[in-house]
Design goal:
There is one protein chain. By secondary structure, the chain is of the alpha+beta class. Helix content is about 15%, strand content about 25%. It has a single domain, classed as Sandwich (Jelly Rolls). The protein has helices at about 15-25, 35-50, 90-95, 100-110, 135-140, and strands spanning about 25-30, 60-70, 70-80, 115, 120-125, 130-135, 145, 150-155, 165-170, 180-185, 195, 205, 215, 220-225, 235-240, 245, 260-265. The strands form 4 sheets. Strands 1, 2, 3, 4, 5, 8, 13, 15 and 17 form a 9-stranded antiparallel sheet that branches.
Length: about 280
């Protein structure tokens, strides 16, 4: 399959091979989507957040630690959540979330009217960057939204391989139900959950060079592993839903996390609660 982003019509729409992979495996990959210079902009902002040189809400920052023999050997940030919100002082991330190189293929899956869920930057540092257990993003989203298909885009800021903790998926698992997810006993990643019944032997690594993007169905089982290398493994993740989505608990005002407007129209039930901070989109050459 040709995975270079060189399509001419609507400029970045799905090609037939990608559609087949999406339907059969629950994901597809494109290489050379974003340049090193484009990704360096995001990396610089995230580094400034990690070094506390840029204003950013602390409650959107998640940290982890390397624990050996019960002792904390090192600690650091592993993820920055909802980084696309303008209130987070990162308009460059919002522009990336609305970039047609990400959203054109998503339109072919969800339709023209799209909202964005949690956009996170995963900052997996050398040696102490921890993996994320088998899970389905849909399990998390179901607590907030009544959704059908949801789409995740996973952009590699660095080369991602087995050594530094790349993404693993279980092909075809999106065709099955959302599994129960359990708390990991004794893990310093206590807020994470693991899908019950997911098996390592069913997973395949998705190794990609920097600048590549993985689109995957948010019901597909996936995980990442610890970073055992001396290199970073950073990624920018954006989630998209159909704008017709409704709240699972519309009465629970205090726990709602409003989605962002991405492209197209909004609809009653969500229209007044969508974040409307709009910035100009620079079309790709």
């Amino acid at each position: 399959m040709n995975t270079d982003t060189t399509s001419d019509e609507r400029q970045f729409r799905l090609i037939p091979e990608e559609r087949v992979s999406w339907e059969e495996n629950g994901y597809f990959v494109r290489h050379n989507v974003f340049s090193k210079e484009e990704n360096d902009i995001l990396a610089k902002i995230a580094d400034e957040i990690a070094e506390r040189k840029r204003t950013f809400p602390e409650y959107h920052i998640f940290e982890n630690a390397l624990v050996l023999d019960g002792e904390v050997e090192a600690s650091g940030i592993y993820a920055m959540h909802n980084i696309q919100y303008v209130s987070c002082n990162c308009p460059e991330f919002l522009k990336r979330t609305r970039d047609p190189r990400l959203t054109d293929p998503t339109v072919d899956i969800l339709g023209p009217d799209i909202l964005g869920l949690n956009n996170l930057y995963i900052w997996k540092p050398p040696k102490i960057g921890l993996g994320f257990p088998w899970h389905q993003d849909k399990w998390y989203f179901n607590h907030q939204y009544k959704t059908g298909t949801t789409v995740a885009t996973w952009t590699a800021i660095d080369d991602a391989d087995i050594e530094n903790g790349c993404l693993y998926v279980i092909p075809g698992s999106h065709k099955n139900e959302v599994l129960e997810h359990k708390v990991l006993e004794g893990s310093q990643q206590g807020e994470f959950r693991q899908a019950e019944g997911a098996r390592d032997e069913d997973g395949v690594p998705v190794e990609v060079p920097a600048g590549s993007v993985i689109w995957f169905n948010s019901q597909v089982l996936h995980k990442s592993t610890d970073n055992h290398s001396n290199r970073f493994r950073r990624a920018n993740v954006a989630h998209y839903i159909d704008a017709r989505t409704e709240w699972t608990h519309p009465e629970a005002i205090n726990v709602k996390r409003p989605p962002m407007w991405i492209r197209g129209k909004t609809y009653p039930g969500m229209e007044k609660e969508v974040q409307w901070d709009v910035i100009p989109i620079i079309e790709s050459d």
